[in-house]
Amino acid sequence: MIITLYGDYIRHVGGSIQIGSLVRLLGQFGVSEQAVRSAISRMKRNGLLRVERQGNSSLYSLTPKSTEMIEAGALRIFQFPSHPRSWDGQWHLVTYSIHENERAARDRLRQELAWMGFGMLTNAVWISPHDHHQEIEAVAESLGVHARIEIFTARHDGLSDPKTMVAHCWNLPTINARYATFVEKFKPMYDEHRRRLANGNDLDASQYFVRRFTLIHEFRRFPFIDPELPAELLPADWRGTEAATLFRQYHDLLAEKANAFFCQVHQDGKPDADLKECECDLIRGGTEHVTQLAA
User: pLDDT (tens digit, 9 = 90+) per residue, 53-86?
Assistant: First the structure.
């Protein structure tokens, strides 16, 4: 939850926050002060946060390690889905021959391929309908296995049905069930919220923050499990498009007042605080990108 807060809010408004503000923000979810302080302590030990003194206050900010991790994750989330719906029928294949004495690099490569949306056709052959050549090169270089990886582009000519091959490479029923769970949780909330607004019965700003945070926290998993297959390879009852549309719509409704609540908490105790500037920083920082998903 703290990583989500830094990625979605704090990094856009100076990158640091007081522990008291973190306690108040996470207290909206029933998290105790002791739990927040324990998590912050662990993150400091793991090199994810650093602390600096500013007057009588301690400010906690990201380290280069956590900044790189968060920015990579945010790019995936806020640009998802990132591929056009049309498909030229070509598959992109990755093959590798990495020895057992480099098992750690091989396991990391497989993990990275899965995060990119590749499916495992055989133990050493992974496929995707999308070109990730540059990302694969970067991973191969970082792992020191560049010379043992090959990339191909090919057409599937049989013998199995394409959807049978897809079913072998990706567990689409499980992904679809998670999309359905997301829709079943947030669609009633969205509809009920709109009815309240129509009746002039709005929610407290803190609830806008809680709902937006929860919405993003739960949607952020999908860019790492959904391979974004072309429509012709998906099951007829696919719920991914419905979930992404709901996410955009509900986020649009929540963003402004959620940002205002965060800025109020973040700026408390700062005599020269400018709440409007804080909100503008959040918008410029990237929260508006969510509303442009799949535009």
Answer: 777 778 898 888 888 777 766 666 666 666 556 7
For residue 65, the model assigns a pLDDT of 83
Cα–Cα dist 141/267, whole Å: 43
Half-sphere exposure of 122 (CA within 13 A, CB side): 7
Separation of alpha carbons 55 and 158, rounded Å: 69
**Could you tell me the two tokens for 14?**
């100076």
Question: Is 0.85 surpassed by the pTM of this model?
Answer: no
CB-CB contact of 170 with 127 (8 Å): no
Q: Supply the angle between the helices 172-198 and 240-267 in degrees, to the nearest 10.
A: 60
Token reading at 61: 């900010």
Of the candidates 83, 78, 75, 106, the one whose C-alpha atom is nearest the C-alpha of residue 227 is 83
- Please answer whether residues 13 and 282 qualify as being in contact, where contact means their C-beta atoms are separated by less than 8 angstroms: yes
CA distances from 127 to 77, 123, 151, 232 (A): 22, 11, 10, 16
Q: Report the distance separating Cα 60 and Cα 16, nearest Å.
A: 5
CATH architecture of 2-78: Orthogonal Bundle (1.10)
Asked whether the bond before 59 is cis by omega within 30 degrees of 0, the reply is no
Report the pLDDT value the prediction gives residue 62, as an integer from 0 to 100.
87
Question: What is the architecture of the domain spanning 90-155?
Answer: 2-Layer Sandwich (3.30)
Alpha helix (H) residue ranges in the chain: 2-8, 19-27, 33-45, 64-78, 103-116, 133-143, 162-169, 172-198, 205-219, 240-267, 275-285
Q: How far apart are CA 97 and CA 271, in angstroms?
A: 61
C-alpha to C-alpha distances, 194 to 181, 216, 222, 254, nearest whole angstrom: 20, 19, 25, 11
Kind plus residue range of the DSSP H or E element containing 60: strand 57-62
CA-nearest of 143, 91, 152 to 117 is 91
